[in-house]
Amino acid sequence: MKYALLGDLHSSLSDTKDVLMHITKISPEAKLVGIGDIFECVIGKKRAITERFESLSKVMKSSKAFTSLLSFPSVRGNQEQRILDITIPNDKFYYVLKNLPETIDLPNAIVIHGHQWKEKILIPKIFNTEDKILFYGHSHKSGLMERYKQIPFFHNQEIKLKHFQYQVNVGSVVDNLEWLLYDDERMTISFMKAKKRTHEST
């Protein structure tokens, strides 16, 4: 099966539309999976330490047009976690966010947002499995590592994976219009980049 991995949307309607249109064009049969930070928390880290809010609308950026695009499962990112931490649970959508898992298992792979560690190059050994490719995001910088060694890549070019010990940052939808195509049967990945389009309404 093919999977289209996309993360770090940060509530960007126009960028998300562009990426979803590109996915539909390149691989319409692919199953979409979110890498987290789907929404943007509008409360900074310092305020989040002491303040609490009774409405999700006061802490997150969203719209009906944006949420209508979210027809796919996703892991929970640090933005969703901050939204949960500072909001009093009195909204149905609060529990939608709360029920987002920390990880999603795919064939031969695991998906996690990546805020669980301070990501530079090294990743905690707990995720250094022999039989799972690690897909993550968070840094808004796409990248490919093989056994923690950086590997160069080009967008729109298929890469054959030789084993499971790869760590793959899929990049960000917001600003960069990036996503990743994973074919678990052929054991290939392709870093993809959509083009910016002009939308009538954002």
List strands and helices in order, with pairings.
Blueprint: E1 2-6, H1 13-26, E2 31-34, E3 40-41, H2 45-50, E4 60-61, H3 64-67, H4 78-86, H5 92-98, E5 103-106, E6 109-112, E7 133-136, E8 143-146, E9 149-151, E10 158-160, E11 166-169, E12 178-183, E13 188-193
Parallel strand pairs: 1-2, 6-7, 7-11
Antiparallel strand pairs: 1-12, 3-4, 5-6, 8-9, 8-11, 10-13, 12-13
How would you describe this structure to a colleague?
Helix content is 20%, strand content 25%. With 202 residues, it is an alpha+beta fold. The chain has a six-stranded mixed sheet, with no helix packed on it.
List keywords for this structure.
202 residues, alpha+beta, 6-stranded mixed β-sheet, 20% helix, globular
